[in-house]
Design a protein that fits this description.
The protein is an all-alpha fold. The protein contains 11 helices and no strands. The chain has 2 domains: 64 residues, Orthogonal Bundle (Arc Repressor Mutant, subunit A); 147 residues, Tetracycline Repressor, domain 2 (Orthogonal Bundle).
Length: 239
């Protein structure tokens, strides 16, 4: 019995040491990648350079990542996971729908604004989903954020704040798309400042919520106008 307990304790310690070593290596890889991306740029940096700066062999590096894009997910995933949970937990029941969405969005502007260089790389590279060790975790984080926004949508539908009976997942994804596009546009500026980004996003959100308020009367008048019919005829002739 005592010998079995001793063997179990030894295995537990070994597993603990392996996990600790794994975490330490991941930290070394992330620090090396951040530094090289900042100094040389993402495209110019090679995985061999990252491995060397991390004090690891290239083969060992591939135990942690599948390719350079996968490395971007490794850098951001742990921070993005906690960021998503904090952002969703920050909303309050008494807030309006728009206030809740702004509450969820603001931490993302703050986070990406802390390191615009790496943030631009992340938001650029995630447009192409190639298989990787860390991609699945990233997609899970994204799904968690959309699900959190969907919860906000469902609450607003139930209390009558949102009159639309559209599928709440569709509405949530449209809000997520607005956040993603606004973040990319903001990060493309030379010196992205989170408060300015949030001011713009609030305007985008208000347009999404209130619509363009197109006059039905003017819209019908334009549809029935002779000039509009002429344009339609020209279009048919060109075809």
């Amino acid at each position: 019995m005592a010998m079995q307990l001793a063997r179990t304790t030894k295995r537990t310690k070994e597993i603990g040491l392996r996990e600790r070593s794994k975490m330490e290596n991941q930290d070394k890889i992330v620090m090396a990648a951040r530094k090289l991306f900042a100094d040389l740029g993402y495209e110019a940096t090679t995985l061999r350079q990252i491995a060397a700066d991390a004090g690891l062999g290239l083969g060992t590096l591939f135990n942690y990542i599948g390719d350079k894009r996968d490395l971007i997910y490794l850098i951001f995933n742990s921070e993005m996971e906690s960021l998503t949970e904090r952002a969703l937990a920050a909303t309050r029941p008494w807030q309006s729908f728009s206030a809740k969405i702004l509450t969820i969005t603001e931490p993302h502007y703050r986070f990406f604004g802390n390191d615009p260089l790496l943030s631009r790389i992340l938001l650029s590279e995630i447009l192409t989903h190639t298989p990787g060790i860390h991609l699945e975790q990233y997609l899970g984080i994204r799904s968690r954020l959309i699900r959190g926004i969907q919860d906000v949508v469902e609450d607003a539908q139930q209390c009558g704040e949102i009159q639309s009976t559209e599928d709440p997942n569709i509405i949530a994804r449209s809000v997520f798309f607005a956040i993603s596009a606004a973040l990319r546009w903001w990060l493309a500026s030379p010196d992205p400042e989170w408060r300015a980004g949030m001011r713009d996003f609030e305007k985008f959100l208000n347009i999404q919520i209130e619509g363009l308020k197109i006059s039905q009367e003017n819209s019908l008048a334009q549809t029935d106008s002779p000039n509009n019919n002429d344009r339609a005829s020209v279009g048919k002739l060109k075809k």
